[in-house]
Amino acid sequence: MMDTGNGPGTSGAYHPATLSILTLNCRGLNIPEQRTHLLRELKKNRISVALLQETHFRKDAAPKLHNKSYPTNYFCDHPTAWKAGVAILIAADLEFQKLDSLLDQQGRFLFLKGTIAGMLYTFATAYVPNKRQAQFLRER
């Protein structure tokens, strides 16, 4: 039997079989209770990487969205309005080494490239407008 590291007494180190990814449309995280609830649910469900859309943060007024369970965060926020916004949160037990990133100046998408346990990963999160979606994707 192979130890996946999920049982009691395990070190909490990353094992390839336990990588779990969640994508979520948050519909805004500006209220502290919403951020607390999100982080609690991510930890409870042992999410390794959270890909968030519609955070509604503004670059100049973004609240903190990390704690000891998710200390590594990458954000792409709208420059002036409380709309759009995407984020990638990485769990503390994941030894992620960032190599590169690509983000949209309007807070619509974020691509993150890096390694975990020597394997190359690219994570992407995007929030496409409700109208003219094909045009938006062509222009990007």
From TrEMBL:
Residues 22-123 form the Endonuclease/exonuclease/phosphatase domain. This is exodeoxyribonuclease III. Its EC number is 3.1.11.2. One of its GO terms (molecular function) is DNA-(apurinic or apyrimidinic site) endonuclease activity. InterPro entries: AP_endonuc_1, Endo/exonu/phosph_ase_sf, Endo/exonuclease/phosphatase. The keyword Metal-binding applies. It catalyses: Exonucleolytic cleavage in the 3'- to 5'-direction to yield nucleoside 5'-phosphates. It is an enzyme of class 3 (hydrolase). One of its GO terms (cellular component) is nucleus. Coiled coil: none annotated. One of its GO terms (biological process) is base-excision repair. Pfam families: Exo_endo_phos (PF03372). The lineage of its organism: Eukaryota, Metazoa, Chordata, Craniata, Vertebrata. Its cofactor is Mg(2+). Belongs to the DNA repair enzymes AP/ExoA family. Keywords: DNA damage, DNA repair, Hydrolase, Magnesium, Metal-binding.
